[in-house]
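for the recovery benchmark. tokens below, seq after
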């Protein structure tokens, strides 16, 4: 009896789709005619062990004709000597004063709770300027420029390799910076300290959470993070004399880039770009198409009224 040829055994190969979630610096592109502007939302204080993918950022930097970087402070030897001479004024409270002389009882109580584990009470007489940054660094995990590579670090290296010109959008005179540090009253730094206390209350993971949101391009979450709010309230962005200069210089540089042929990249603080009424909102309001990740917080979903409440209103 002839054997019936066996059909080959069916093999089912499960298709595995690997979705590599992109992680990297948030970037937006705006074009007008033969001008293209790439805006990079940058943060500082990225933990050294937090990995992110700079490929897109490096490629964008390499194809740019020029790259705009944050402002530089131009300080002379005289300015530096003034800082050294007045260091106590900058770092300490006026004699006989403590944080309790400037904070409301509620905020002082929150500060006391955050600092409960400190070995000494030296923090009570630090200037509010210094206290604000200490709270962010020691209690909320913010490392500032001492952290891992951020967008600005990557862009500078990519620009050097591609021989692309980089230049700051502006400068701030050293004497103005020093004056703002020396002459500002303690009351000017109260909003900074309050915001820093709120960041410190989130604990040492606050900075990591912010950085993770940044690399995942969750822009609204970064802008809403307690650390980003604190940085916006603290010197120099919270200074009433310096901050307007910083905003105006960025606005002028962006306007120039939009009428300059070729590709210009601007690496700017993410809050400057994505906050409500910021650069991105302004560009969109003027009719530009802004291509990039969503930067606005989602509006809360409307809650349908209870049927009984509707009937009651109608008199049913």
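predicted aa per position
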């Amino acid at each position: 009896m002839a054997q019936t040829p066996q059909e080959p055994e069916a093999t089912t190969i499960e298709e595995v789709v690997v979705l590599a979630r992109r992680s990297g610096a948030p970037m937006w592109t705006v074009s007008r005619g033969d001008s293209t502007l790439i805006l990079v939302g940058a943060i500082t204080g990225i933990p050294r062990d937090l990995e992110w993918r700079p490929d897109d950022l490096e490629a964008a930097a390499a194809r740019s004709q020029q790259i705009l970087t944050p402002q530089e402070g131009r300080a002379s030897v005289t300015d530096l000597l003034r800082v050294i001479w007045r260091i106590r004024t900058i770092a300490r409270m006026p004699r006989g004063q403590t944080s309790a002389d400037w904070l409301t009882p509620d905020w002082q109580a929150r500060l006391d709770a955050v600092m409960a584990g400190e070995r000494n009470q030296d923090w009570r007489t630090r200037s509010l300027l210094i206290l604000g940054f200490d709270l962010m660094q020691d209690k909320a995990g913010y490392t500032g420029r001492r952290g891992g590579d951020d967008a600005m670090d990557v862009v500078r290296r990519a620009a050097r390799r591609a021989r692309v010109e980089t230049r700051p959008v502006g400068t701030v005179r050293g004497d103005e910076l020093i004056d703002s540090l020396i002459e500002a009253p303690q009351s000017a730094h109260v909003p900074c300290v309050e915001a820093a206390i709120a960041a410190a209350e989130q604990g040492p993971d606050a900075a990591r959470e912010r950085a993770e949101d940044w690399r995942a391009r969750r822009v609204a979450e970064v802008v809403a993070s307690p650390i980003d709010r604190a940085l916006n309230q603290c010197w120099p962005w919270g200074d009433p004399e310096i901050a307007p200069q910083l905003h105006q210089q960025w606005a002028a540089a962006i306007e120039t880039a939009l009428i300059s042929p070729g590709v210009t990249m601007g690496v700017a603080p993410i809050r400057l770009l994505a906050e409500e009424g910021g650069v991105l909102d302004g560009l969109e309001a003027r009719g530009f198409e802004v291509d990039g990740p969503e930067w606005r917080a989602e509006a809360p979903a409307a809650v349908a009224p209870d049927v009984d409440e509707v009937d009651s209103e109608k008199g049913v």
